[in-house]
Amino acid sequence: MKKDPSNMNRRQFLQRLGVGAGSALAMMAMEPLNVLAGTKKPDDVVGGDDSVKMTYRVQHGSGEKISLLGFGMMRLPDDQEDVDRLVDYAIAHGVNYFDTAPMYKGGRNEDQTGRALSRYPRDKYYIATKMSNQNQRLWDFDAAKEMYERSFERLRVDYIDYYLLHSIGGGGVDGLKGRFLDNGLLDFLLKEREAGRIRHLGFSYHGDVSAFDWLLDRQDEYHWDFAQIQMNYLDWRHASLNKNGWRRDADAEYLYDKLEKTGVQAVIMEPLRGGALGRMNDDLMARLQAVRPDDTPASWAFRWVASHPNILTTLSGINQMEHMEENIRTFSPLEPCTEAENVLLAEIADVMAGFPTIPCTTCSYCMPCPFGVDIPGNFAYYNDAVSKQILPLPDKTAVDYLTRKQQFADGLLEALPDKSQWANQCTDCEACLPKCPQQIRIPNQMARIVETLSRR
User: Fold this and answer.
1) Is the pLDDT of residue 5 over 70?
2) Do 373 and 446 touch, CB atoms closer than 8 A?
3) Neighbours of 111 (CB within 10 A)
4) For residue range 91-125, what is the model confidence (pLDDT) as tens digits?
5) For residue 147, is pLDDT > 50?
6) Choosing from 56, 97, 104, 148, which is the catalytic residue?
7) Coil, strand, or helix at residue 267?
8) CB within 10 Å: which end of the chain, N or C, has fewer?
9) Neighbours of 223 (CB within 10 A)
């Protein structure tokens, strides 16, 4: 449904639909849902013609039908023609939600997204972008406003469908206030929503849960239209562990439940936890294949997330056509997880929670490293070695100790042929620490990899 911001503001649009934000929240609050027990299925909408089988969810305030699979643009290929092909395939198969941000590729990602989507009528797609003012220099109102206005130019639009306060949680409530309240920026964005230049206003969350709670506890004041959280079947009850030098303040179960109780729909990021849930050791893979022999681990993870009724869309960071095709098959239409499948995935999550992995999602927010270390590349390889049961190394007296140690070193060389990008180049400068949304103690984890390589 296309809306003309020149003659209709957000409040008028809601009134035209006959749905006020307050009444939408009230209707939702009447039905508490047990999302894992399978007691109620979401009211999904499936594409109406034979060529489109995509599953859609209805945005509660506007009635917009949003594809349950959203295209996360952060990891786009560099070549614009490749981007265009991915976008063309996505739109042809019913995907209509596209997520980007000014900080991805230094703004180039927004530009790529705008170039690809501007070839289509404006009512064929919904764009989500963000206020990425994590750098304290951008807490200045004028600098932040410039970032906001530049997003319109790069995306080639005169309104933004879904706009987010990007990655609230770093620095807790004090950081939130410095970025958005003390400088008047949130007041400005609320006025932009009222004027129709922003259609839906929300936030994405990582880090200190106090900021998440603070915003939702003021729903009557801000009327958030949506919120973006990291959610997958591992983080559902295993995100707030405190081990291996990292910390998360809340499990996804807490975040999702609070959004549902508050009447705010969720947009999901990291459904595969940076790809980790798309790779699985043989034992766990066998348990999944015994139930659904033809499904990939990624399909299982997407189905689990999308089975929750208060989810508007599930973002997948896609840069290869084969992944696009597989993901679209999973959602066209969605086959929700059964209660037995939910139990199986909970058991697998319990097993995986005991693996000594690093909770990196390969978002690359930490990059570039001043000393050339490929931080996400090192972590991705380390976690892959854990998944393949090369790590942890056995006792030095074990007969396979040297073999597995060499296997780990050979695999790292294959994954990162340039040794100047290896973990042993880390100087513990800590420039990466404030950038990491997962709050990983990155130098500590680099030291872990170096120790594994150097053990005698």
Assistant:
1) no
2) yes
3) 18
4) 999 999 999 999 988 889 999 999 999 999 999 99
5) yes
6) 104
7) strand
8) C
9) 17
